[in-house]
Amino acid sequence: MLALGIVTEVFGPHGEGLPGFDFALCSDRPGPVPTDLRVPLLIEHGLDRLAAADLVIALPWAGFRTPLEPAVLDALSAAHENGALVAAHCVGTFALAALVLLDGRRATTHWRFAELLARRYPDVAVEPDALYIDEERITTGAGAAAGFDLCLHLLRREYGAAMANAVARDMVLPSHRDGGQAQYLAAPVPEDCQDERLTEVIAWAREHLHEPLPVAELARRAVMSKRSFARRFAAATGTTPHAWLRSLRLSSAEELLETTDLPVEEIAHRVGYGSAAVLRAQFVRRRGVPPRSYRRSFTRVP
């Protein structure tokens, strides 16, 4: 039910100005379906509904260790062959692996079941730590709340950063986490005065992206040594200060490219890059296209 709530929240109605989707739940056995909350869910659509889908997301199910019904495999395979984007959340990845769609590709699932996935499907390159992995028309995601990251990534990829950020704000969620970020933290960060300072520094950095923001300055504001700051930052976010800033700067640049007609040089300075050339290099490396090409694909300026 958690997975179902996640995809329903992301792709369900969000009010004026945000996209509306033709959202449907499908099953090989339409009708009342039992759930892990012991509350039956009424499924109206059968597998034939997948034939018209642009996006199909395989959700986790209790019997993922046993073979799927041939009808389910056939319907998923046909949807993929028809051009649909196919994704999987948590152990839903086992469904795509059973189709041989993941052979020779990278994939992820809930970290607890990554070893089982790798053992059962040795031709799949399983990455147990990733939040999600995008292999063009096939995307797999980790378990539990990482489903939000998977769905927001799909929304961002197809509709752009501004739309994904707006939906994330509506759900009171972080707008973007890189797929390579760790699924879980080995230990929680103790709640003390240092954590409060770290939170304040992260908020301050978001408001000062146009500045250089070296780690030494962030550590100074947190009243920590550089080493202590980097360690506590990684414990709190699952990534390094450099990687976090890079992701935030690129995400902010994406939104400005989509929603304004500012020159690329001005956008580069606003998000903390010294020149348009530096922004372009980072954009091509991390997004696969230069900023101007991205703007043509996702611009929302009239």
Give a short summary of the structure.
The chain is α/β, with parallel strands linked by helices and 302 residues long. It contains 13 helices and eight strands.
Please give a structural write-up.
The protein has 302 residues and is α/β, with parallel strands linked by helices. It contains 13 helices and eight strands. The chain has helices at 2-11, 70-81, 93-98, 114-120, 146-159, 161-170, 193-207, 215-221, 226-237, 241-259, 264-270, 276-287, 291-298; strands at residues 31-33, 41-43, 55-58, 85-89, 106-107, 125-126, 132-135, 138-141. Strands 3-4-8-7 form a four-stranded mixed beta sheet. The chain has a two-stranded antiparallel sheet with strand order 1-2. A two-stranded parallel sheet has the order 5-6. A hairpin with a 7-residue loop joins strand 1 and strand 2. Helix 1 (2-11) runs parallel beside helix 5 and helix 5 (146-159) packs antiparallel against helix 6 (161-170). The chain starts with a helix and ends with a helix.
